[in-house]
Amino acid sequence: MSQHPQYLWWNGKQMRWEDATVHVTALGWSTVGAIFEGIRAYWNPDHQELYIFRLDEHMERFERSMKLMRLPVTYSMDELKRAIVDLLRANDSREDTYIRPLAYRGGSGQRRFSETGGTSEILINTHPMPTHLLSGRGYSACVSSWTRISDNVMPPRVKNISNYRNGQLVGMEAELNGYDTALILNTQGKVAEGGGACVMLVRDGKLITPDVTQSILESITRDALIVLARQELGLEVVERAVDRTELYIADEVFMCGTAAEITPLTSVDRYTIGNGEIGPITRKLEELLDDCFHGRSGARPNWRTPVGVAAAVAD
Ligand SMILES: *Cc1c(COP(=O)(O)O)cnc(C)c1O
C-alpha cells in the first residue's frame, strides 16, 4: 500500500487525497495557531478488525486544544469520531494506522497576532504506522540543553503545533550529538518529558512519572500505563517532580506516547540504566499495552473503537 490513503476528510467531506489542495500563498503564518491529535489504530489479524485506541479521550483533548488556542469548534466531536471511523473504512485500512486530525484557522490569516473568531478548518489524514512495541531495542537518550516550554509561554499540555519547534530543536540536537532521543527539563530544572513522548522511571519497584504541572503534555498513553501498572501489576505509581539525577540511578526508564508507544531507554547521558537491558516492568507494561491495543484478551473494551473494516467491504 502507498503511504498516502485513498481518501481523507476535509471540512465536512470525504474526498480523494489528490483533490485536497490549498494555494501556496496559504503557507506561512496559517499554521502557527494550528492544533492536532495523534491517534493510533491497530490491526488484529485474528479478528480481521482494526481497533482505534482511546478515540474518545483523543477527541476530548482535540476539543481542549481548540479551546486553549481559541479556535472555534465548528464540528462536534461525535461528528469527527464518525468521520474517522468512516475514513478508515473507506481506505480499507488493514494495518496499524496513524490518524492525524488537524484544526487551523481558515481564511487569509492577514491579522497574524490578534486573530480570533472566524472559522476553523479541519483535516483528517491517515497513514500506515507499524507498531514497534516489544521490538527488544533499547534507546540512548541525553538530557537536552534546551528547556521545555512552560505554561506561561505556550500551553505544553495540549497538541499546539507551535510547541513542536521546541521538540524539534531538542530532537535535532540529540541526533547530531549521537543519541537516539532526548529528555527535556522544565523551567524549574525538573524532568518534564521528551518533547513528543512522556517519561516514566522505575525506582525500587515504584513507577514514577512527572505530574501534569511539570510542563508535560497530558498524555493518554501515560494515563493508560498508570492504570495498567496499578490495576494489573499492583504497582505503586507516584506522580511528582523528578530530578535529573534520578534518571541516572533509576532501575528502568522508558518513554511513552501514541507515536513512542513504549520506548525503553537503556542509557541516559551515557549512564547505563539498570544493567543496560530492557527491565522487567518495562517489558510487562509493553505486553499489557500490546494486548490492549489489539484487543487480544478482550480486556478494557472501552479503550477500543472497532472500525468494522471487514463489514464495510462486505456491505
Ligand atoms: C502526543 C504527545 C505526547 C504523548 O501523548 P499521548 O496522548 O500518549 O500520545 C507526549 N508529549 C508530547 C509533546 C506530545 O505531543
How would you summarize this macromolecular structure in one to three sentences?
With 315 residues, this protein is an alpha+beta fold. 25% of the residues lie in helices and 28% in strands.
Explain what this protein looks like in three dimensions:
By secondary structure, this protein is α+β, with helices and mostly antiparallel strands. The protein folds into two domains: 7-128, Aminotransferase class 4, branched-chain amino acid transferase, N-terminal domain (D-amino Acid Aminotransferase, Chain A, domain 1), CATH 3.30.470; 139-297, D-amino Acid Aminotransferase, subunit A, domain 2 (D-amino Acid Aminotransferase, Chain A, domain 2, Alpha-Beta Barrel), CATH 3.20.10.10. 25% of the residues lie in helices and 28% in strands. It contains seven helices and 17 strands. It has helices spanning 55-68, 77-90, 164-176, 220-231, 244-249, 280-294, 309-314; strands at 7-10, 13-16, 35-36, 39-44, 49-53, 97-105, 120-128, 139-147, 181-185, 191-193, 198-203, 206-209, 237-239, 252-257, 261-268, 271-272, 304-306. Strands 8, 9, 10, 11, 12, 13, 14, 15 and 16 form a nine-stranded mixed sheet that branches. Strands 1, 2, 3, 4, 5, 6, 7 and 17 form an eight-stranded antiparallel sheet that branches. The longest helix has 15 residues, at 280-294. The chain is globular. 41% of the residues are buried. The model has no long low-confidence stretch (mean pLDDT 94). The structure holds pyridoxal-5'-phosphate.
